[in-house]
Amino acid sequence: MATSNAATPDEYIASLEPERAAVLQAVREHVNGHLPDGYVETMQYGMISWVVPLEVYGGTYNKQPLAYASLAAQKNYSSLYLMSVYSAAGRMGEEEMRARWAGGKKLDMGKSCVRFKAVDDLDLPLIGEIIGGTPLDRFVEAVREATSTG
């Protein structure tokens, strides 16, 4: 996985070659435009990430903010990580996302990672629905349930 030492999302975008920067900036703006209240955009693990602040949920095993979504430029493609699709938190799981992906567009996806080279490779309306579909409190509650030992 390609990582960056950029301190801010703006620095990260500026560090990319112009064509890649334009692609990631467009996806970043789309995510920010659909992001529910409470999530915070930051840099985490060398990627642009949208996280649950530690003040809201600090119970992570690694003491890092809980990631909701992340965006990164890899060597030969870019990745958008959608943790709500992978978890039980979102309204839409992986199977439904795969079924609803825009016709004619190939979906290159792992468990929570959508790989793409251009903005046109993405089903932006569906991604906006996924990003906007999980309020912070629902995501935190799903994580609490999943990590409960009781």
Describe the structure.
The structure is a single chain. This protein has 150 residues and is an alpha+beta fold. The protein has one domain: Alpha-Beta Complex (Aspartate Aminotransferase, domain 1). A 6-stranded antiparallel β-sheet has the order 1-2-3-4-6-5. A hairpin with a 3-residue loop joins strand 5 and strand 6. Helix 2 packs across helix 5. The chain is globular. It starts with 8 loop residues before the first helix and ends with a helix. The mean pLDDT is 90.
Give the key terms.
alpha+beta, 6 strands, globular, about 150 residues, six-stranded antiparallel beta sheet
Provide a quick synopsis of the model:
With 150 residues, the chain is an alpha+beta fold. The chain has helices spanning 9-14, 18-34, 83-86, 94-100, 124-132, 136-147; strands at residues 40-44, 47-52, 66-73, 78-82, 108-109, 113-116.
What is the count of distinct domains? 1
The CATH level-2 architecture is identified as Alpha-Beta Complex
Q: Got a strand count?
A: 6
CATH class: Alpha Beta
Estimated radius of gyration: 15 Å
What's the arrangement of secondary structure elements?
Elements: H1 9-14, H2 18-34, E1 40-44, E2 47-52, E3 66-73, E4 78-82, H3 83-86, H4 94-100, E5 108-109, E6 113-116, H5 124-132, H6 136-147
Antiparallel strand pairs: 1-2, 2-3, 3-4, 4-6, 5-6
